[in-house]
Each structure stands twice: as C-alpha cells, then as structure tokens.
Q: What sequence folds into this?
C-alpha cells in the first residue's frame, strides 16, 4: 500500500474520444508524475507536476495534458484517443521533485481504446 | 540519452534457487538506481534503491550494488520463493530537475515449486 490512489481502475473508450484519469498523491507529497506502460514494456514518463506547475515532460504529444490541484491531487487528460493509447497509466508521487526522491506508484488505470 | 538495459526473460527457477537479474545503464553524471517489482495486475512497488556508487540496496532478501565502473545494478536473491514470481524493472533517475524514472523493459521471473 503506497498511499497513491487512482481512478478509474479500468475503462474502455472509443477512438477519437477524450478521457480523464485521476490520482490522489500520498499525504504530504507535492510532486506527481504520470507514466504510460504499454503491454510487455517498461513505463514511459509522460509529465510531472510540482506544486501545481508542469515540471518536465516526456516525448508525448500535446493531446496528453494534465493538472495538479492545490491539494496536490492530479488529473491526466488525453484527447482524440488513438488505438495505441491503450495502456496502463500509472500515477506516482514523491515528497519533492528531483533526483533521489523515492517515487511511489499507484495501482494504475487500465485504458482500452477500441 | 540515458537508458537502462535488462536481461531478457522469462527467467524460470525452482524454489530456493539463486536469482540474478542483470541490469546495465547508460547515463551522464551520477544517477540514482532502483529496482521495482510488479505483481500480476498491480502497479509498481519499490523493491530497493541506491543513490551513489558502491551503495548496496537491500529489501526482503533482495540485494543490488551500484557499480559505477561497470555501469551495473544487478539484482540478486539467495533463495527465491514462489511468491517472488513477478516482473522486475530496473530504473534510473538522472534528472536533477524532475527525478523522472527511466525504466528497462522488465524481466519476468517465474518460480516453480
């Protein structure tokens, strides 16, 4: 139990639709990162939010966007869904941004795009 | 850029066998190194970490030593159990700004009774 909670756990969307995934960080953590894990692959960094500001982004198109709220919970939004967006989306929180901080992952949200 | 390479799986062992999963990395500077474990249908759990050269991370009987001279962080366990069956990911954090993790492709471990 990492204290990072995500919702929903599973969802199915149609190509072209939009989806919002939600994450509550561990208590006291001000940094939230999102990762995409395709089947059989390691997770890939999408972006990070630190104190409500985007603090770094991986190689993902602009249709992947996010928010962090004053209580440090976060949302990941994906517009114009494509079949290749089908994956496990993992939220992770840490006490602070920067190298060396231990990063705790939630159970993930399984997204299937049909 | 930074990258992590793990030995390909699946690795199949009998209970109480010795486990080694190889991990090498490419990075500039002095990254932090991690092993995460993913049980079927679950998210990632931190298994152990090391933040500087020659550090040894350990947890639940697993160990890994940060070897800068060979750019390696191999995972070992002296006696595996059926409950250790999972996917193991080696990762590095080399960004001082975000601390983002770069993962290897994962190694599946199957332990048979």
A:
């Amino acid at each position: 139990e990492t204290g990072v909670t995500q919702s929903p756990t599973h969802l199915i969307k149609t190509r072209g639709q939009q989806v919002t995934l939600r994450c509550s960080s561990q208590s006291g953590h001000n940094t939230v990162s999102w990762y995409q894990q395709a089947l059989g692959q390691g997770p890939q960094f999408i972006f990070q939010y630190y104190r409500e500001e985007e603090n770094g982004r991986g190689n993902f198109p602009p249709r992947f966007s996010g928010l962090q709220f004053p209580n440090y919970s976060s949302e990941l939004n994906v517009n114009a869904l494509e079949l290749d967006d089908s994956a496990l989306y993992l939220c992770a929180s840490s006490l602070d941004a920067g190298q060396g901080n231990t990063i705790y992952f939630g159970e993930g949200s399984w997204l299937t795009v049909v | 850029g930074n990258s992590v390479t793990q030995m390909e799986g699946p690795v199949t062992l009998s209970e109480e066998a010795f486990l080694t999963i190889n991990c090498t990395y490419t990075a500039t500077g002095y990254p932090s190194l991690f092993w995460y474990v993913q049980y079927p249908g679950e998210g990632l759990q931190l298994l152990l970490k090391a933040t500087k050269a020659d550090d040894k991370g350990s947890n639940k009987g697993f160990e890994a030593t940060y070897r800068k001279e060979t750019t390696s962080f191999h995972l070992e366990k002296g006696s595996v159990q059926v409950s250790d069956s999972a996917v193991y990911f080696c990762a590095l954090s080399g960004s001082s700004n975000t601390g983002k993790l770069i993962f290897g492709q994962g190694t599946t471990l199957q332990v048979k009774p």
